[in-house]
DNA sequence: CATGAATGAGACTTCATTCAT
DNA sequence: TATGAATGAAGTCTCATTCAT
């Protein structure tokens, strides 16, 4: 087993799991190793979830960073991030279900996401686009709204332009005026 | 045991629950009945959660309806609802944790909430306050953003005027212009 | 399951087991109940062992107390106790193996045995029969020597008058002069 | 680690026959080799324990033999042995815990100890100091009483002159009259 | 109907042993 | 030969569910 590499494999079992989808046994099976092997790399279930969560977060974050590398505007960067997550939800429901499940348990994942997010929020505020009263509440709202929208997509099926709609609402929530929010959310994704 | 009535008792044990915190055993104890009795009324844990969820939703919804009875504006009604939930999170963290846990499993709960919510969203749109591109996405975003904010309050501690901040962001997300959103979110709660 | 009653059942599996013979699973099977049932009565493996140990100790202690009820002499009482344990080893090897295994883990068992024992040691000393320099060491020696002798009996097979031989050595170890030790160890067991 | 014999087909998984601190992994680490290497020399955990036990026995036996080389009296030799073991328990608790654990599993160890011991017992008997009715029982009692005393020392803490007290009791158990036992147990250890 | 002891599947974890390198 | 990652059986424990009373 090359742990980091193999654990990238998304826990597909979770697709139909309530509680057990993140059982070490299940995760081991996903990774194609036997149950005991997991404990050569992690000391407990919690550590495993943490690692899986981080991995999921890093995967997408890197993708987003690549895409928004040249973008200066915090609002645009945030829009790109939200839309990228939404598109991932459309194209990879299994990955998304794993993300949604794991995010509840993986503190490290949340802080990783928060780090990226905070930078964009602060940039957007400096640039006069965002006007929020409380940064933590703003971050919480961005994260939970996006995850909620991803969940909707995954559970209820396709919505046209779901990525733009979600980005627009998030931008508006942060104080971007409706017209401007629509414009930013409608920009072509770099590299598309 | 009169199931609906007795299950009003909030599952306090859930306070320290990871995955299984809403065990039938626990719920039975909360309700003051023995574990086996639960299965005279519900066929499975899932049904119990469903009932608990409904109960929680109805409890708060009734409270909100009472408060916003005389309010015509959909935007104001929604603001009242969001703020009432937020204030509940501040004053009853145990209840809130139960809500957050249960909402994941209780489909019926989500539809109950959605019914109330949809009415307000549609009213707000008719009245020219809300401008959303997709009703389901709008509902999902209101619910998940509010729950996310409640969770922040419960897990990370007090935030001043958390209720207004949350309501303001939700209103903005739905297309209410920033100034107007601030005004509505800042209205005194009826009955206060 | 009537726990106390059923757990009297000696873990026969232990016959060929290391630690595994005292696995809750095994003990449950011995008691004729399913594994989960054990945890309705005990909170952990340790508590189970403690209970089994106590049970074993109490079983034999009561028998010994009945036999030596009318005996005033501490030396005679101790002799009776040692011989009763030895005879138990001869007639019930399974019980004895369980005892020997459990005594290693069950603190409560050791203190129960120690309580009975200490009374006899102190009586014997008051009566001028025992002369030991350190009570804890004396108790340790009585217990370990007796268990060692029981183990010999169980693993290596019968020894004629093993009970008297063991009692004699123990009495001598405690300072009873050889002739007197032989006499006391040779007294007929009350009730025989 | 010295090669003994080659590996053959072996029955699998006695997992959790576990013995704290004497896991092959631990022993390998102690020996400064990797876990797999152990199995180039021993076929099973049991064989390893056997070897470790022998080693421990030989270590101390040689020390004792050196000390009591010039001593003719079996009783004195036995006293020296018991006291040397007791002093080892005081000065090296880790070694002692290992000994106590291993002695349960290592048949070869017990026979090695028994060989040395038997010689002293028989000498003491020939010399008119020991009077025991059954040699195996006598050996069992000497070994288990000494180990019990060592265990007491290790687990419950220091006892003054524990070595002499233990030796005295053991000698008395073997029929040495109290006064004489005290004298022998109190002799200065050769080389001290 | 209510009870609560019993059930047993399955979660988490350990560790003796194997085997490809 | 040495290595150490991988293995998987078995151990400890939880909890949703059943059932005799």
Q: How would you describe what is shown here?
A:
- The structure is a homotetramer of 192-residue chains.
- The first copy, chain A, is mainly alpha-helical.
- Chain A has a domain at 57-186: Tetracycline Repressor, domain 2 (Orthogonal Bundle), CATH 1.10.357.
- Chain A has helices spanning 3-7, 24-31, 35-38, 45-67, 74-91, 93-103, 107-126, 135-156, 162-173, 178-186.
- In chain A, helix 4 crosses helix 6, helix 5 crosses helix 6 and helix 9 (162-173) packs antiparallel against helix 10.
- Chains in contact: A-B, C-D.
- The structure holds a DNA duplex (21 and 21 nucleotides).
Biggest sheet layout of chain A: none
Structural class of chain A: mainly alpha
Question: Helix segment count of chain A?
Answer: 10
Head-to-tail CA distance between termini of chain A: 36 Å
Number of strands of chain A: 0
What portion of the residues of chain A fall into strands of 2 or more residues?
under 5%
Q: In sequence order, what are the helices and strands of chain A, one letter per element? A: HHHHHHHHHH
């Amino acid at each position: 087993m090359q742990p980091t590499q193999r654990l990238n494999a998304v826990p597909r079992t979770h697709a139909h799991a309530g509680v057990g989808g993140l059982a070490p046994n299940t995760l081991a099976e996903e990774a194609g190793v036997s149950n005991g092997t997991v404990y050569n790399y992690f000391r407990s279930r919690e550590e495993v979830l943490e690692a899986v969560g981080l991995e999921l977060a890093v995967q997408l974050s890197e993708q987003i960073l690549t895409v928004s590398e040249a973008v200066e505007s915090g609002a645009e960067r945030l829009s790109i991030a939200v839309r990228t997550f939404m598109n991932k939800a459309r194209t990879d429901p299994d990955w998304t279900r794993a993300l949604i499940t794991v995010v509840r348990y993986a503190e490290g994942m949340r802080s990783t996401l928060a780090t990226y997010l905070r930078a964009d929020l602060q940039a957007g505020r400096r640039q006069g686009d965002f006007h929020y009263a409380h940064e933590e509440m703003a971050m919480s709202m961005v994260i939970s709204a996006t995850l909620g929208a991803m969940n909707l997509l995954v559970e209820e099926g396709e919505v046209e332009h779901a990525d733009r709609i979600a980005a627009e609402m998030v931008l508006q929530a942060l104080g971007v005026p409706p017209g401007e929010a629509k414009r930013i959310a409608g920009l072509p994704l770099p590299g598309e």
